From TrEMBL:
Coiled coil (UniProt feature): 129-200, 327-354
Keyword entries, A-Z: Coiled coil, Disulfide bond, Endoplasmic reticulum, Signal
Species whose genome carries this gene: Ranatra chinensis
Protein name: Glucosidase 2 subunit beta
EF-hand domain segment(s): 189-224
Signal peptide: none
Length: 480
């Protein structure tokens, strides 16, 4: 390491400027006149505006300040050498040294206690990692057995379903025939309905519908203005001059049928209203003044019990129903075994991902995986789940906003920064991300949160896992 004092060891009574441009007599150094272009000949005065003034700060930490700060009335050096002309400063290096020593002692004690806890976390972490690896081995065996059961269950299911399908073919054929028959009946009914409508519209019964026949039919009055226009005729007749019965069924009836249906509904409503008017107030009252109940509504027989009614029988014969039940059972068993395999695969994947993560040189951070730590400021509550995610929610509750999912440590081998990325997108902005600053503490706790840039968050996290003694930290650095 090159020290400040080593740069001012003169040879042959001469001093060479640091930029090599001039060689001066040693008497020119600190003579309050700037000779070197780089200001290196005046480290102890403010003569050079671009120079550097060196604070010796004996007993404390030396430092360099710009020469422009010399004799500016502000105490920059604890030994007061920067204000030699004003005399406004006193030497405070001893006080600062004592304070620094006290802080160093406190930090050393914190590191000592924290490191003791860290060693406990390492022991627990190694045990946890070993247990997870053992669990992985056990799950691999369980998975192989479950896959064998799945294969056997699938064979049983396929066999049962094949028998079921063979037995059901007979019933499917019957159902298809019944369906075809129903469709044919419906088709014929629709055809008959259309024939009736055609017959009603065909005034001269010549088998052809013409405009002069239809123009008097209110059913074609789409807009209900009291007359059938040429446009309405063209719409229903599909721009034809006349329509045959076959064309009526194919072209005209699909358009006309909805209007017939509406007309029928309106007619039924009118009939109901008329009937209501006729019967209103005509209820029969018995001599006691009570409404007489219809005699056809008889009380159920006293000896008639629910168990007298047999449930409807199955539409399948006994043997077919048995095959269906066996197939259902085989399907349910296969689904249960298949679900078991998926559960095992999910647990295996999670455990393998866990043991592959970087939990520190000695797995000191592994026990934090699976835990979550919260911090609340004036507006929000932040939740840090190490190696998983960071979320934010309103102080009074509400839905969570993901600020990032675990990505990696800031630098491989450096366990002071955690990076979480690919959080929820900001409004018209990027995806949220979080940087977690990790430092030594006697307990694992989040102590601060901020958003220095839009959608970029910083959490401060203290944990004993980060309490490495100086030599341990140096050894880890040397390993890198």
């Amino acid at each position: 390491m090159i020290t400040e004092s080593s740069l001012y060891q003169f040879e042959n009574g001469e001093f060479t400027c640091f930029d090599g441009t001039l060689t001066l007599p040693t008497s020119y150094v600190n003579d309050d006149y700037c000779d070197c272009f780089d200001g290196s000949d005046e480290p102890g005065t403010s003569a050079c505006p671009n120079g550097i003034f060196h604070c010796g700060n004996d007993g404390y930490v030396s430092k360099n300040i710009p020469s422009s700060r010399v004799n500016d009335g502000i105490c920059d050096c604890c030994d007061a050498t920067d204000e030699y002309a004003t005399g406004n400063c006193s030497n405070t290096c001893a006080v600062l040294s004592a304070e620094a020593k006290l802080q160093a002692e406190k930090l050393a004690e914190l590191m000592l206690q924290g490191n003791h806890l860290r060693l406990q976390m390492i022991t627990a972490g190694k045990q946890l990692k070993m247990e997870r690896k053992e669990r992985i081995s056990a799950l691999e065996i369980e998975k192989a057995e479950a896959e064998q059961l799945k294969s056997e269950a699938e064979t049983v299911k396929n066999t049962a379903e094949a028998s079921e399908n063979s037995a059901l073919e007979y019933y499917r054929a019957i159902e298809e025939a019944q369906k075809a028959e129903r469709e044919e009946i419906e088709k014929q009914e629709a055809r008959n309905e259309a024939k009736e409508a055609f017959k009603h519209l065909d005034s001269d019964s010549d088998g052809i519908l013409k405009k002069d026949e239809l123009i008097t039919r209110n059913i074609l009055d789409k807009n209900k203005d009291g007359e059938v226009s040429d446009e309405e005729l063209q719409f229903f007749m599909d721009d034809r001059e006349e329509v045959s019965e076959e064309d009526f069924f194919e072209v005209m009836w699909p358009k006309l049928k909805p209007f017939y249906m509406m007309q029928q509904e309106a007619t039924l409503d009118d009939v109901d209203n008329d009937n209501n008017k006729e019967t209103e107030g005509e209820e029969d009252w018995d001599k006691s003044g009570e409404l007489e109940v219809g005699k056809e509504e008889e009380e159920p027989e006293a000896d008639e019990k629910p168990e007298d009614f047999e449930p409807p029988s199955s539409k399948y014969d006994e043997q077919t129903q048995k095959l269906i039940d066996e197939a259902n059972k085989a399907r349910a068993n296969f689904e249960a075994v298949e679900r078991s395999v998926r559960d095992l695969e999910r647990e295996l994947s999670k455990l393998k991902e866990s043991v592959s993560k970087d939990y520190g040189v000695d797995d000191e951070f592994i026990s934090l995986d699976g835990q979550c730590f919260t911090y609340t400021d004036r507006e929000y509550t932040y939740k840090l789940c190490p190696f998983d995610q960071v979320v934010q929610m309103g102080k009074s509750g509400g839905s969570e906003t993901r600020l990032g999912v675990w990505k990696s440590w800031g630098t491989p081998g450096d366990y002071n920064i955690m990076l979480y990325e690919k959080g929820q997108s900001c409004w018209n902005g990027p995806q949220r991300s979080t940087k977690v600053l990790v430092s030594c503490g006697l307990e694992s706790v989040v102590v601060g949160a901020s958003e220095p840039n839009k959608c970029e968050y910083v959490l401060e996290f203290k944990t004993p896992a980060a309490c490495k003694m100086p030599q341990q930290a140096k050894d880890n650095h040397d390993e890198l």
